[in-house]
Amino acid sequence: MIMACLECGLEWQCLCSAVPSLTGPLALSLLMHENEYQRETNTGRWLVKALPDCADYLWQRRTPPPALLERLNDPGYYSLLIYPSEHSEPVEQHLQHAQDNGQIPHFIVLDGTWQEAKKMLRKSAWLNLPHAHLTTMQTSHYQLRRNQQTGHLCTLEVASELLKHIHQPQQAQALTDFLDTFMKTLQADKSGHRLREHSLT
């Protein structure tokens, strides 16, 4: 009987050693829908392992995570929500604002399906933050979920784009490369076999 890895959950090939260990100064908070914790296709969990200043918090409508609230109230941070809306501005403008005020940009990402993210925002009166959107021509390479909407990036791709915006292109590429490895490995695992080495190239 094949036992799944307790960390990555895969049976035929452990993915843990492939997770990049990054040092980029990206302050990132993932506000996760409860369903996302159960999804094998979730990419946010890998960011928590890869980025030194990334944390995940369970979203609850009436009870905001205390640790996240503490960070939101820290004057040393400039907190913004990565969420394209009619009120959102390019992330570059927010980065300039943070720099002008001597603050550290703190990015919050709603981690869930697009429908879940809209619900989370609508029902979180406490999440009253500036909205920012990414200005990128990148097309999502994420292939693990059905009905992906055009122009939407998965959580790991969002983090990769943010790293580019704070001038960390090599670390951004490391995340992109890992996403490709993760998708191929998970698809092989669900098919009941180990990923062949040549499939990684």
The strand count comes to: 6
**How large is the count of helical segments?**
6
Measured between the Cα atoms of the first and last residue, the distance is 30 Å
Class based on secondary structure composition and strand pairing: alpha/beta
Residues in helix, %: 25-40%
Task: List the secondary-structure elements in sequence, H or E.
Answer: EHEHEEHEHEHH
User: What would you call the quaternary organization?
Assistant: single chain
Could you tell me the radius of gyration in angstroms? 17 Å
For the biggest β-sheet, the strand order reads 2-1-5-3-6-4
Low-confidence stretches: none
User: Main sheet?
Assistant: 6 strands, parallel
% residues in beta strands: 5-15%
Mean of pLDDT:
88
Task: Name the overall outline.
Answer: globular
Write up what this structure looks like:
The chain has 201 residues and is of the alpha/beta class. Helices cover 33% and strands 15% of the residues. The chain contains 6 helices and 6 strands. A 6-stranded parallel β-sheet has the order 2-1-5-3-6-4, sandwiched between helices. Helix 5 (155-165) runs antiparallel to helix 6 (169-190). The two termini are 30 Å apart. The mean pLDDT is 88.
What descriptors fit this protein?
alpha/beta, six-stranded parallel sheet, DTW, 6 helices, DTWD2/TAPT, 6 strands, transferase, globular, tRNA processing, 33% helix, 15% strand, EC 2.5.1.25, 201 residues
